[in-house]
Amino acid sequence: MPQRKNTFSFRRRRAAQRVVHQAWAWIQRTGSVTAEHPAGFRFGSIGEATRLAFPLGTVFGEPWIHLGSHCIVGEQVTLTAGLMPDLDLGPDPILRIGDGVVLGRGSHVIADTTVTIGRDCYFGPYVYVTSTNHSYDDPHQPIGRQWPRMEAVEIGPGCWIGTGAVILPGARIGRNVVVAAGAVVRGTVPDHAVVAGAPARVVRRWTAEDGWQPPLRTPAPVPIPDGTTPDQLRALADLDEAAVARLADLETES
């Protein structure tokens, strides 16, 4: 015979789960770093409404890290300036992140020399940006013991960097560039380009003379008309839900 559920134990587990989730949410809110948070004072600058989510990844060299306003730094994001903690890196910032930048969960930005990320860039999860590469000139020394090569990295404004992309030392990425997921970028990427592959190459580009080449396969999204109010958007959402429900009823009737 089937055993009867222990209703009391079930309710106790649900109550415990609720407490755990509420406690974790409180820890995340309390542990996140903002300009007003004590940990925020260590940074060279943090702009208004910028938040580093908890738990943080590895973070050091904060005095040489400058974060713009309205940035979102996801969980487990690593931000470092300098080869190791407690170095004096001089008077100028090493890692500059512009306004409105979003760094996805688990991403790494390693700025042993200057790394600049322009405003309104969006990074997917687990993007890796580094200004340092291992050298292997000496065949008799372990590669990890050889002095690395460093070269500045610059990512222009308005870029989208896909999940798992790698940006190598010396990369110069232009304005409004799409970097495909898993791409490995080195060298110079022109404005308004789409790059993919390892090493990344330009697979599509926009110019004022020719537009997108090769042409886009899908029509551009229709923007929301100017002057549209939130109430109107909510009404459209309700209308869509009603239409879906009506279609489901028709399918059932047929």
TrEMBL record:
GO terms for molecular function: O-acyltransferase activity. Residues 212-231 are annotated as: Disordered. One of its GO terms (cellular component) is cytosol. CDD domains: LbH_MAT_like (cd04647). This is Acyltransferase. Keywords: Acyltransferase, Repeat, Transferase. It holds the Pfam family Hexapep. Gene3D superfamilies: Hexapeptide repeat proteins. Transmembrane segments: none annotated. Belongs to the transferase hexapeptide repeat family. Signal peptide: none annotated.
